[in-house]
Amino acid sequence: MTAEKTALLIAYRFPPQGGGGSLRTLKFTKYLREFGWEPVVHTARNPFWPVTDETLLHDVPEGVRVYRTQAFEFERLEQRLATRFKSHDKRGTSRQSVGRSSGKAPRRPGLSESVRAQVHRRLLVPDPQIAWLPGAFVNGLKIARREAPRVLYTSSPPNSTQLVGALLAAALRKPWVADFRDPWTDGMRRQQAYTGNRLRGALERAAERMVVRRADRIVVTAEPLRTRFLAKYPFLAPERVVVLTNGYDAADFAACSTGGRDIEADRFHLTGTGNIEAMFDARPLLRAIAELIAEHPGCRADLLVNLVGAKKGQYDADLQNLGLTERVRYVGWVPHTQSLRYLHQSDVLLMCAITQPSGQGEKFPAKGFEYLYLRKPVLCLSAPGVTTELLARSGLGTVVDPADLAGIKAALRTFYDRRHQPARGDAAFIARFDRRRLTEELAGIFDTLAGVRNPASVAA
Predict the structure, then answer these.
(1) DSSP character string of 197-238
(2) For the residues 223-230, what does the mean pLDDT come to?
(3) Do 13 and 139 sit in the same domain of this protein?
(4) What is the dihedral of CA 143, 146, 147, 151, to 10 degrees?
(5) 273 vs 310: CA distance, rounded Å
(6) Segments forming the whole domain that contains residue 373
(7) Are residues 280 and 379 in the same domain?
């Protein structure tokens, strides 16, 4: 289908930045043309981000214009300054320690840590990317003059992107869709930032309220987040808040069956992707694996755990004490296509969820939709919520409390005993989360806001 209408998509997280945050806008960009919209992307030129995945750029359709505005990244500056302050603090500590007794005083934050904390708490509101706002706004006006978009779309976090959208929508008088991949002021980390900092909390709540009031549509990734917005802001008409979940792109899996293997073909693999250790306390899981290996001859011979993208270090002592240093393998970060191969070649997929409020009790992890597409058994360590409900409907998930050692061990034993039985899953339900279908829904929102007549109604 030839696109006749232009949508300006503003997203700080966009390839070659890696990770799930950049995938959502990328996949909308990939498929919007099929539904009559020409995407134009506005993103950051020099983002400070831990992972880069150049392979994702292959999904940007040929001819789609991607504008990149320079940003001043405080976090990059902090990294450089921290190195200098750290060496300075070490020299000072060395001199001061001469002639002292062997008693150790409690460690106090170094100068660099104290300065960093104050800058983040007091100045970088709502986030370090606020420095991108002036340039993004000015360049956004230039892009709009050149591209003549009929609608604007912004994706957060970072939440300062929504402020860019608010300014551009007001200046251009264009319809605006504000997409919240995560909660803003109700997010767990945001609440921590407001502790002892009432001014910051007040400023961010006022900014969120302004964005919600001015946006023509609010898009969220799960129904509980929609319910929260409607309860929090009574002035919102229900039709203004729309759920568009994350999803999977079937085309991403085309290469999974070709080429060599990333893991052994003759072993029983439990694999999880993402920074799993940041999500929950992994000790019950590790103890359950160790006990199962000791008790079950098959698992003793075959069981291997692959943590793709997890950061090694936090549980090194536990792994050594439990004898799991050769069983639990930290793969580190790999490109998205390779992480999918790890999942495709595994027997059981591991999903770990934040059990605190505003975690996976309210939304389904973005990577979980790729788990569903593969239709493999999923061991989910989570409290009840959206995650557990969606897995139950898919027919693929076994949900266990993250602290239930016995339950984890029993689930793994069952998975091993049934390893040759294919997981079926509810194909019709899983198909709802196809990225192409989700993009069609977004295009429908754009059509409504731009006053485009529905072709189906015209034909009728």
Answers:
(1) -HHHHHHHHHHHHHHHHH-SEEEESSHHHHHHHHHH-TTS-G
(2) 94
(3) yes
(4) 60
(5) 7
(6) 251-427
(7) yes
